[in-house]
């Protein structure tokens, strides 16, 4: 079995959200294979199903006035940040009722990506995501509708970590965030991380990737 990979580059959150829904319907109807969307977003705050707004440090209007979009969405989890330099992945895969297993597979794939850079990362029982030491490197939050997933993961590659300071990320008080750039002490090529993520997903999910080239070619 194969999965399709679409590299969408830098895409506003609202456009990506609508495109996810379109792809999701096509996967549900069997009109396309399982699909992994890879992209970056301009600065945006998203709040998942567990969010009440208490982990926003300012009124919603403040964020919009200071260059952040804000969206309440149907994924799991609380509040998080997306921005340039962060690899966002939306695996739109059939998962049936095995949602917990699916979350663990995403975590396993991200751990493999991080290990390819000589770093040891781990998931934390009870919280979806991947950590290095006491700092969160990758946030994970999915939704499942008609037994097919959407939303996904956000891996900090060269992310401006200062932007996390305007929220309590994932509602976890007293916890830090980190990035591959901070851990390695250098900028990390985003296309390289995307390629390693595709390979890790192929290994973990036991499927062959087929990369849709048109978006990738536009970035080179």
UniProtKB/TrEMBL annotation:
Annotated GO MF terms: lipoyl(octanoyl) transferase activity
Electron transport among keywords: no
Catalytic residues as annotated in Swiss-Prot or TrEMBL: 170 (acyl-thioester intermediate)
Pathway(s) per entry: Protein modification; protein lipoylation via endogenous pathway; protein N(6)-(lipoyl)lysine from octanoyl-[acyl-carrier-protein]: step 1/2
Enzyme class at the top of the EC tree: transferase
Keywords from the named record: Acyltransferase, Cytoplasm, Transferase
Major location category of this protein: cytoplasm
Locations listed in the record: Cytoplasm
UniProt catalytic activity: octanoyl-[ACP] + L-lysyl-[protein] = N(6)-octanoyl-L-lysyl-[protein] + holo-[ACP] + H(+)
EC number(s) recorded for this UniProt protein: 2.3.1.181
Pfam families per record: LplA-B_cat
Segments forming domain BPL/LPL catalytic: 30-209
Binding site for substrate: 75-82, 139-141, 152-154
InterPro entries given in the database record: aa-tRNA-synth_II/BPL/LPL, BPL_LPL_catalytic, Octanoyltransferase, Octanoyltransferase_CS
Site residues, Lowers pKa of active site Cys: 136
Further remarks about this protein from its record: In the reaction, the free carboxyl group of octanoic acid is attached via an amide linkage to the epsilon-amino group of a specific lysine residue of lipoyl domains of lipoate-dependent enzymes.
Task performed by this protein: Catalyzes the transfer of endogenously produced octanoic acid from octanoyl-acyl-carrier-protein onto the lipoyl domains of lipoate-dependent enzymes. Lipoyl-ACP can also act as a substrate although octanoyl-ACP is likely to be the physiological substrate.
Protein family (similarity comment): Belongs to the LipB family.
PANTHER family linked to this entry: LIPOYLTRANSFERASE 2, MITOCHONDRIAL-RELATED, OCTANOYLTRANSFERASE
Protein name (Swiss-Prot/TrEMBL): Octanoyltransferase
UniProt gene name: lipB
